[in-house]
């Protein structure tokens, strides 16, 4: 045994006890080391796994055109942006990318962030502060919640996708500025927020609507322009945020909206101002990605085909059900943490990687398998998964 160092007899920092608590609740998370990626196949511990866990919905993360763009951009720009965007980190590549992103989603201007999480924790506090109110869907992503907390505004959590509950709260709020924030496609459920109703409410109550389209950009709407475009929404009250590490296959995020709103956010979003810009090479690869997203529409068609296969052909063990979703995020609702983990393990043993999602990521009692589909899947890959799911028992014994 190794050396045991003496801890003080009592301490507020008993990490071992904390970890035992996490284990007891079956909430310990572990990382798997991936040795190689090849589309939807991953090599782990020498085994090839078929992956239904990535957010690479269009299968672009290893696309040859993007890989070539990265090589050329590295030769031209090197690898580091060297500074924050407001100092000298904003290259011609970033500038062109922002113009192309704005055009892509049909909005006047866009601002590119190095990642989605800090985008939202910067945007929400820039838009709302003490004396204001943030109205947040109950199933919003953690970064919108943290952004709302950082803002110090009054936080009003409305029932999931419930425009009537939101309206009651908007009407009752005395706040000066009202900001509505919502995932467009909910990340763990795959359902779509009632965006037209939310925008109407924003207009009626002098509010702004910030939507996070991390799972809709590239997938929904004409040429993959996203959820707002899918509904044909246009309004100076709409701020459209999306991430670029999912369907776009690269990294980063952006917010798009009216010219003056975006200029204001550039002045005020602290995570934009005080962080090193993403490398210019990432911006160049994203430009290549936007071209592929628009041109290779067969990828969205393949996704639609796979989604229909799940909806129409899945046969589930008793007591399990598929959540309502028409997007590549297909939740297989199981309930208990233990049952979800066992189902994940049983699939893993058959070479299929489908993650179990447990609280606090989802509400207690709603543990699930989160199937995510990719245009890189062949229908036969999905067939194999659906057959394996049909063969599971609701409470597979622990291995
Ligand atoms: C993944 C995700 C983010 C975070 O984006 P990153 O670029 O991964 O930091 C934000 N919002 C939602 C809804 C997400 O699913």
What does this structure look like?
With 399 residues, the chain is of the alpha/beta class. The chain has two domains: 29-58 and 297-390, Aspartate Aminotransferase, domain 1 (Alpha-Beta Complex), CATH 3.90.1150.10; 64-295, 3-Layer(aba) Sandwich (Aspartate Aminotransferase, domain 2), CATH 3.40.640.10. 40% of the residues lie in helices and 17% in strands. The protein has 15 helices and 15 strands. It has a seven-stranded mixed beta sheet, with helices on both faces. It is globular and about 55 Å long. The mean pLDDT is 95. It binds pyridoxal-5'-phosphate.
* Helical/strand content category: alpha/beta
Helicity range = 25-40%
Poorly predicted sequence stretches spanning 5 or more consecutive residues:
none
Number of strands: 15
Give the ordered list of helices and strands.
HEEEHHHEHEHEHEHEHEEHHHHEEHEEEH
Rounded mean pLDDT is 95
- Rg, rounded, reads 22 Å
**N→C terminal distance:** 28 Å
Strand content: 15-25%
Bound molecules: pyridoxal-5'-phosphate
Second CATH tier, the architecture of the largest domain: 3-Layer(aba) Sandwich
CATH class of the largest domain: Alpha Beta
How would you sum up the global shape? Answer: globular
């Amino acid at each position: 045994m190794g050396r045991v160092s003496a801890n003080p007899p009592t301490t507020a920092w008993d990490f071992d006890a904390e970890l035992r608590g996490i284990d007891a609740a079956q909430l310990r998370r572990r990382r798997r080391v991936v040795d190689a990626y090849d589309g939807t196949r991953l090599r782990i511990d020498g085994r090839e796994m078929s992956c239904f866990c990535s957010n690479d919905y269009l299968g672009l993360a290893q696309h040859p055109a993007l890989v070539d763009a990265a090589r050329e951009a590295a030769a031209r720009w090197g690898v580091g942006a060297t500074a924050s965007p407001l100092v000298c980190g904003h290259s011609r590549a970033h500038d062109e990318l922002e113009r192309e992103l704005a055009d892509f989603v049909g909005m006047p201007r866009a601002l590119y962030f190095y990642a989605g999480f800090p985008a939202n924790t910067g945007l929400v506090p820039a838009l709302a502060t003490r004396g204001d109110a943030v109205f947040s869907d109950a199933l919003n992503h953690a970064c919108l919640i943290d952004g709302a907390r950082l803002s110090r505004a009054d936080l009003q959590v409305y029932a999931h996708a419930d425009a009537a509950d939101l309206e009651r709260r908007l009407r009752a709020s005395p706040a000066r500025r009202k900001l509505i924030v919502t995932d467009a496609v909910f990340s763990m459920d795959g359902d779509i927020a009632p965006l037209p109703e939310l925008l109407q409410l924003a207009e009626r109550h002098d509010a702004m609507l910030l939507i996070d389209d991390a799972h809709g950009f590239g997938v929904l709407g004409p040429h993959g322009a996203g959820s707002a475009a899918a509904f044909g929404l246009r309004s100076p009250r709409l701020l459209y945020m999306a991430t670029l590490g999912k369907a776009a296959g690269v990294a980063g995020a952006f917010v798009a909206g009216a010219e003056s709103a975006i200029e204001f956010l550039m002045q005020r979003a602290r995570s934009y101002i005080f962080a090193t810009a993403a490398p210019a090479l990432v911006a160049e690869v994203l430009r290549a990605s936007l071209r592929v997203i628009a041109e290779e529409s067969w990828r969205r068609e393949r996704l639609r085909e796979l989604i229909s296969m799940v909806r129409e052909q899945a046969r589930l063990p008793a007591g399990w059900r598929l959540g309502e979703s028409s997007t590549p995020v297909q939740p297989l609702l199981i309930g208990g943490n233990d049952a979800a983990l066992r189902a994940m393990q049983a699939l893993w043993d058959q070479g299929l990687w489908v993650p179990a999602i447990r609280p606090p990521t989802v509400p207690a009692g709603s543990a699930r398998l989160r199937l995510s589909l990719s245009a890189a899947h062949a229908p036969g890959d999905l067939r194999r998964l659906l057959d394996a799911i049909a063969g599971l028992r609701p409470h597979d014994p622990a291995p």
